[in-house]
Write a structure and sequence with these properties.
This protein is α+β, with helices and mostly antiparallel strands. It has one helix at residues 3-24, and strands at residues 32-39, 49-56, 62-66. A hairpin with a 5-residue loop joins strand 2 (49-56) and strand 3 (62-66). The termini are far apart.
């Protein structure tokens, strides 16, 4: 196995460890950075949408809640 393949395997293992840590984290509100977002001003007000982007300061997971 060449060094590139070895590095890709190591990256894959580390990504799996990160995913496990993030899945076990409770993402407490006190550790979250939350930013509201919106897309408004459309010709059709029913097309307006609102969302909140979150980042957990403990595990660095990022996710979006809402219409985005």
């Amino acid at each position: 196995m060449n060094s590139v393949e070895q590095l890709k395997n190591e990256i894959d293992k580390l990504n799996k460890k990160i995913a496990l840590i993030q899945s076990e984290c409770s993402h407490p509100p006190s550790a979250r950075d939350s930013k509201p977002g919106a897309s408004t001003g459309n010709y059709d007000p029913t097309a307006d949408c609102y969302w909140v982007d979150h980042t957990c300061g403990l595990c660095q997971k990022k996710w979006t809640e809402g219409d985005k």
